[in-house]
Amino acid sequence: AQSVTQLGSHVSVSEGALVLLRCNYSSSVPPYLFWYVQYPNQGLQLLLKYTSAATLVKGINGFEAEFKKSETSFHLTKPSAHMSDAAEYFCAVSGAGSYQLTFGKGTKLSVIP
Amino acid sequence: EAGVAQSPRYKIIEKRQSVAFWCNPISGHATLYWYQQILGQGPKLLIQFQNNGVVDDSQLPKDRFSAERLKGVDSTLKIQPAKLEDSAVYLCASSFDPNTEAFFGQGTRLTVV
Known about the structure:
The complex is a heterodimer.
Chain A: E1 2-7, E2 10-14, E3 19-27, E4 31-38, E5 44-50, E6 56-58, E7 64-68, E8 73-78, E9 87-95, E10 102-103, E11 107-112
Parallel strand pairs in A: 2-11
Antiparallel strand pairs in A: 1-3, 3-8, 4-5, 4-9, 6-7, 7-8, 9-10, 9-11
Chain B: E1 5-7, E2 10-13, E3 19-24, E4 31-37, E5 44-50, E6 53-56, E7 65-68, E8 75-79, E9 88-95, E10 103-104, E11 108-112
Parallel strand pairs in B: 2-11
Antiparallel strand pairs in B: 1-3, 3-8, 4-5, 4-9, 5-6, 7-8, 9-10, 9-11
């Protein structure tokens, strides 16, 4: 079984500041890990995914995440926040080889001008 | 390439009424998922199809929810009778196969009053 915990339901950053969204996972099998973004009234868009290759994963829109097995973490970062990054972000986990996803509760990112 | 199409986008019904949602996956995608996203939570998998067969419906409340994908293409999700707690966004996703990335539709927002 897999589960995901996202720390912080709401994160606010200033435009140009570092974005850090936290995700910890639990999995009984080697995991695949994902970050999705959801804009208001839209579906989910994949930002990046870890599928047991490189532990540092680069995604779209300047985001990246690092898989740390020892910490069971997969935190999402972006060096400089942009107003267009304001959205809700979901971390998800699946068992390796599967794309049947278990999602966290989400973190809403606000970007302050 | 057309994305995953869902209809209707919005639906308001009274409790104890019935409702159906429709999903048209990306052409050629054999795997189809239905997720329920309650406000303030991450999406939760309801059912997974492979072609016209059910792979996993362990989290589908079968006393009131049903889903079908008769010809292995379009899918419908039905709720009968609806309860207040069924108010949520219902997301459909599809993938080429179970081992590849799923793409999400925009969802159907259901409000039960």
